[in-house]
Amino acid sequence: MKISAAYLQAIENAYKKTFLPEMSEKCEVLQYSAKEAQDAEKVVEDIEYLKYDKGPWQDQDDRTFHGLRMLVQNKLEVLNYTTIPVYLPEITIGAHQSDRVFRKFLELPGRKYSPGYNADVGDSWIWLK
């Protein structure tokens, strides 16, 4: 499959003119050329100097950090977020959106525990099971 230069140029322009400026308002953005990116020590040093004044770090609490930690400590679950068997832009959702939808699903009545153990939907005799 051959990709035209005009298509790649359009992606680059959109990235530089729309995406990066928008992300710069919401989070810290570090830009490197291909040669600069190879210097791992410089990249690590730049990350260490960040103050983290922007971005989602300010909105986090212990509960959300715990949820994130539980997610990343399970290697198979992290792998599930990175492997997409079929990529269709119209129906493919990102990892964070998928996680939000799954957490909302678990908050529905009767979904907190296994079937038969949810008092919120009228399950009884739970303590005998």
Automatic annotation (TrEMBL):
GO terms for cellular component: mitochondrion. It comes from the Eukaryota. Keywords: Ubiquinone. One of its GO terms (biological process) is mitochondrial electron transport, NADH to ubiquinone. This is NADH:ubiquinone oxidoreductase subunit A10.
